[in-house]
Amino acid sequence: MKRVIHISLFSLFIIMVFGLMGFIYIENAKQLVGEINIRIIRDSDQGFLSQDDILNLIEEADSISSRQIREVSIKDIELRIISNPFVEQADAFINIDKDLVINVEEKSPFLRIFTRHGNGFYLDDQGKPFPLNENYSSLVPIASGYINIEFDQKNGMPVTDEEDDLISALFYLTSVIRQSDFLNAQISQIYLNSKGEYDLIPEVGNHIIQLGSLDNVEDKLDRLELWYKKSFVREGGDKYGIINLRYKDQVVCTRK
Predict the structure, then answer these.
(1) Which CATH number is 87's domain given?
(2) Ranges of H-type helices in the chain
(3) Of 161, 244, 162, 232, which Cα lies nearest the Cα of 198?
(4) Any residues with CB less than 8 A from the CB of 189 and at least 6 apart, and which?
(5) Total tally of structural domains belonging to the chain
(6) Are residues 141 and 230 in the same domain?
(7) DSSP 8-state symbol, 126
(8) pLDDT tens string 130-184
(9) Do residue 238 and residue 142 come from a single domain?
């Protein structure tokens, strides 16, 4: 008999606990949303997005802060934010103080590409394209020249996707350059010439680096870095007009 009483009392306790939790949940859901706290995650102080941009994405006719918590769809907020082309990912939640907390990770620009007709876009660190921003320009390497890519002026994006051979090649070359801290700081521009070969424009020194095709590109760039650290330091950057890496195991320098 005692066992039955204990089980009954325990069951009643569990029901009361869940009932109390349900009551608290319902009452909390009736509370108004407090402040909206937005944190934008990126590598620099400035970027493509501002807090006002995020607010404009999630605000409708009524301010979210004037709504009850139960009226706010966290999933809808996240989807609205992710719809922005400069957002990599977003998460939102209501904290214990009933504030809406939004964490936004901004896309990380890797390369800026200009087509032959002057249209531009970025590649992110995954090789995926996203549009330029009229309020902010990122200091990343630039690729230009005879880059023939169909472009959609309306959304500021290339019609071809990240699997396009030329986009993939430019992303690959930039990735190899960025493997070296030295070359990453020294190479400021990639130029695709009329022969479909790649030239590099340095940050320091008045010369052009003829890379040629991307065959054995890692070996070519290793030779370039070694040349910089030896001959460039000794002879200076203004002695030569062309640094040719197209020949196997050689660095052919042409005087101005």
Answers:
(1) 3.10.20
(2) 2-30, 51-58, 74-82, 165-178, 181-186, 217-227, 233-235
(3) 244
(4) 141, 142, 143, 144, 200, 201
(5) 2
(6) yes
(7) T
(8) 999 988 999 899 999 999 988 888 888 888 755 578 999 999 999 999 999 999 9
(9) yes
Distance of alpha carbon 175 from alpha carbon 108, whole angstroms: 14
Answer yes or no: do 139 and 98 share one domain: no
Strand partners, 190: 143, 200
pTM, two decimal places: 0.80
- Residue 25's CB is within 10 A of a number of other CB atoms, namely 12
Tell me: the pLDDT tens digits for 35-67? 888 999 998 888 999 998 998 888 764 466 666
Do residues 145 and 173 touch, judged by C-beta distance below 8 A?
Answer: no
Q: Provide the 8-state DSSP code for 133.
A: B
Q: Are 58 and 184 found together in one domain?
A: no
Instruction: Output the six-digit token pair for 256.
Output: 């101005």
DSSP 66: G
Q: Which domain holds residue 134?
A: 109-255
Q: Which of 106, 121, 140 is the last residue of a domain?
A: 106
